[in-house]
Amino acid sequence: MAKNLLIVESPAKAKTIEGYLGKDFTVKSSYGHIRDLVKSEDAIDIANNFEQKYEVPADKKQIVAELKKLAKEADMVWLASDEDREGEAISWHLFDTLNLKDATTKRIVFHEITKPAIMAAIDNPRKIDYNLVNAQQARRVLDRLVGFELSPVLWKKVKPSLSAGRVQSVAVRIIVEREREINKFKSEAAFKIAAIFGKGKQSFKAELAERYSQQEDAEKFLTDCIDADFDVKSLETKPAKRSPAAPFTTSTLQQEASRKLGYSVSRTMQVAQKLYEAGHITYMRTDSVNLSETALQAAEQQIISAYGDKYHQHRKYKTKSAGAQEAHEAIRPTYFNNHTIDGDNSEKRLYELIWKRAIASQMSEAQFEKTTAKISISTRKEELVANGEVMKFDGFLKVYLESDDDEDDTQQDGDNAMLPPLTKGQRLELEEMLATERFSRPPARYTEASLVKKLEELGIGRPSTYAPTISTIQNRGYVVKEEREGKQRKFRVLTLKNKSVSKEERTENTGAERGKLFPTDIGAVVNDFLVQHFKGIVDFNFTAKVEKQFDEIAQGLEEWTTMIGNFYKPFHADVQNTIETADKATGVRDLGIHPEKGEKVSVRIGRYGPFVQVGENASDDNKDYKPLYASLRTGQSIETITLEEALELFKLPKVVGEYEGKPMKVAIGRFGPYISHNSAFVSLPKEIDPLDVTEEQAIELITEKRKKDAEKLIKAFDEDPTVKVLNGRWGPYIEFGKQNVKIPKDITDPLTLTFEQCKALADADSKAPKKGSKKFAKKK
DNA sequence: CAGTGAGCGAGCTTCCGCTTGACTT
Q1: Which residues, at least 6 apart from A284, have a Cβ–Cβ distance to it below 8 Å?
Q2: Could you say which nucleotides of strand B lie within 7 A of any protein CB atom?
């Protein structure tokens, strides 16, 4: 039996460390926190100095039992959870739960999983730092108090099952406010002037710094240039350099994987977890940009052997985010000599990104020569400017170039291009000059990854919670990740060519979005409610403010119960006051008067989502009166919908004709426009406008759908026509009315299924407990 | 999922941060 039990947070880490320590040590993992506040309301005894009630959750019972047993048998227990607030608390929870003794317990910490770091940690044990533990308790209690008092206010004042919290509510606020900035934005048009000089390979582009808001001015400029002479007035050459970015943290990995590989934040984390478990990379939930000494040496060796001496440059990076706790290394390959790894495609690509970024971070800067040529115009006082760039030494660019958030690359045109050899005073041949109407752009919508970046800048959330937070705000229906079609926009182009100026109008698609975060109406209403009644909590600096206080607690400068007490008193009073006095939040907005009926048209959020209402609410003295209702469509919002758009919604559902004696109705459902006929449904193809569906088109679509369904059909039953065996995407299944039933593996030939068998399978399926629905079982 | 939106009331929901698996229609 090993004399020593060492406990870390992650099992993959435990495996590595066990290898370093030898036979005298058993290394186990706690799998993160082993205890949490109980779910019930009495988790925190407010009257009794915020005393907490903890429990070991069901899924941790087994681990705790095993650790307890091993701890009893060991001579010494080493608590080696991470060196940060949460890690210290994990050590304390372990100490308390496993009934450890002071004399036989040691607390150690290390920031990197290398043999020298572990050995040094073992040589320098300490005691549990209770100030740090208290800071974590304050954090935990504050989050519970905020979350579990605010959410019920929303259930009463907005809708059941909603949630609010220190992190998620600010995330939603960021999205809501950005959307409003975009809606408010007034785009301004101006003509941008660009000239092409010379022909073929010798040609280059020069631009005018000034822009003209009036077409006449742009036209005048071009006309003035018809007979002008263009001379190189000055030439300036300057060296320039570019340095590599720091190795990845969780947040920057999520951003780059999103931009370069198109991964969602959660996908990135799933793939990184696999790489970590396979031993290919270091821990992927980190806010540190540091590399260990061993890693620095390995990187150096690798760079020198692969690219040569002059490509290596030793670099140390400093964290930029204020809240960073730096309990781990930056994300890097465990072995720099592995340029690629075995694994599936997504793992290979993410590994390559991590390898390149880490290697590049220790490489020399890239060097350029930038040339600026100013070109005079004989008929005008303005100058055209041409920029050229020549790379003199690639440095880190040999392996890696960080992408930036700005997707618009048109601005970079010409910047990176090479200029032909020019001399001062040289006369230039104008090939063509364009004045193109360009529009100023609204601020960009957030992607999952750019939201993470923003949260990190505000110090809100932690590496382990970025991905879950993004999921939460989508699961609650506050935010949707969507594609939206753009609009056609006309713009004018003036061209000077062959000594004459011509005008034309072109069209471009603008405002199209892919994978961007949009607030929903419920998200906006909840946000406005919170901003109105709990300004302090959804303030962008709230977390930073409390973090400062947590730091003071960690340093032993403040009592955690005092801090929480000071926070809770006014907060709880706000909660009480809001419950008593605030109106229900529905986001109601009047759009105007119905042009024919003369009745009021309004929008708001109802039980089933946002809808339009024509007419007043039904009242007691006129019971027969009923207002008209229509749901909003995806992409529409109660904040921006116009009266005209709202009235359009009442044109559907519409009967477009008859087929087999039954009406065909066109309507719009949650998944888009569809035709219903005899309780069957056909989705409408994108090209067909739901308002213009003809009877013939509808019949064609229905017969087509039937043909396709018939191809999928394996077996039908005389006993009941609603029961069928069908071929689906994942193999055959039974359609039992509206219920879809999977066919068990022991039935190899679905053709042999009898009606009775199908019925029995459907019965069993509906009785089987669905995952995550305890209430389902309770109700029955 | 498939054209709803009243009001009543039981019984439910909910936070953030550490960790991995167990789930797959």
Answers
A1: A250, A253, A269, A272, A273, A275, A276, A331
A2: 1-6, 11-21, 23-25
